[in-house]
Amino acid sequence: MDPELEAFVPLFPRADFSDPVTARKALAELAAVVPALDTDGLEIEDRTVPADPDVPVRVYRPRQAQGAVLWLHGGGFVMGDVRTEHPWATRLAHGSGAVVISVSYRVAPEDPFPAALDDAYAVLNWLAAHAAELGVDPARIAVGGHSAGGGLAAALALRARDERGPAICFQVLNQAQLDDRQETWSQRTFTDTPWVNREKVAQSWQHYLGSRPATPYAAAARADDLSGLPPAYVSTAEFDPNRDDDLDYALRLLRSGVSVELHQWAGTFHGSQALLSAEVSQRQSAELGAVLRRALAP
Fold first, then answer.
1. What span, in angstroms and rounded, lies between the C-alpha atoms of 228 and 200?
2. Alpha-carbon distance 235 to 272, whole Å?
């Protein structure tokens, strides 16, 4: 493990989703102690997307924005919102120069699949319809997310393709949660990794799926046909149960004719990118912004 990251491992909360309410409280407490971020040059606005029910979003508009990214937070499908995602979204807006639409989708187990995906799809349709108002070219809309949010972004791209929904020009899958079956080597082996391990991933899927069987819109790796999807950036962490699921998905996209940029970050673990003092985390964040900037450039 990267020594700068390893020093923080004892400080991370226990990897556990057995009590989602407690997990949400712990995440909110972590987010509350993050130092204030530089928001100079960003116009930030909380809005509500009309749907059933309505979906809260937070819009980050840099000056002379190039395109937009619909961003879906992590949290194992059970926790997170626009407040806890504020640091991610702020850095992403600065780094990419794009309008960032951060989505507070419904979380499980109170609202299991397909609630989160329905919320994301409602926001995608709203974004496409209001692109001019946001100063965005509707042909330059990306979707992306971290962890569970990356899984939702992949599912959103599948649904938009299948239902002939708004055009998505790019997808960002950062340490994405893609497969409920947990059959890969990393899923079977990483039982004691920091922040996320095999058991926590299993708990997450149990909360998200409830009594429903998994479909490709719940777990994108179950999709048989990946052709016709937007180009992708796939990023993995070395010590992450999701690692091999993501690597397999990236290879399947490539074999389906989809252009993919793939980066496996050595020495990192799931969520370690939040440790901004580490040099590898700084490189990860910079690359994420640069990839989107290139993908959304005129």
1. 33
2. 13
> Per the structure block, which two tokens stand in for 161?
């393709």
Where are the domains positioned within the chain?
3-295
pLDDT band of residue 27 (cuts 50, 70, 90) is confident
pLDDT at 14 over 80: no
Which residue among the candidates 186, 270, 272, 281 is catalytic per the annotation?
Answer: 270
> What is the tally of helices (H) and strands (E) in the chain?
9, 8
Annotated catalytic residue 244: no
Annotated catalytic residue: which of 102, 147, 204, 281?
147
For residue 135, which of 64, 36, 59, 217 has the smallest C-alpha distance?
A: 64
**For 194-223, how does the pLDDT look when each residue is reduced to its tens digit (9 = 90+)?**
999 999 999 999 999 999 999 999 999 999
- Percent of the chain past pLDDT 70, that is, above it, reads 100
What is the sign of the dihedral through the CA atoms of 101, 159, 23 and 54?
A: positive
Q: What is the mean pLDDT of residues 28-54?
A: 90
Residues 111, 119, 179, 240: which is the catalytic one? 240
Q: Pull the structure tokens for residue 44.
A: 């930030």
Q: Which of 81, 77, 70 is nearest to 122 (CA)?
A: 70
Q: Is 130 a catalytic residue?
A: no
Q: Is 5 left (phi over 0), alpha (psi -120 to 50) or beta?
A: alpha
pLDDT of 35 strictly over 90: no
pLDDT digits (tens, 9 = 90+) for 129-167: 999 999 999 999 999 999 999 999 999 999 999 999 999
Pick the CATH number of 3-295 from 3.40.50.2000, 3.40.50.1820, 3.30.565.10, 3.40.640.10: 3.40.50.1820
Per the annotation, the verdict on 240 as an active-site residue is yes
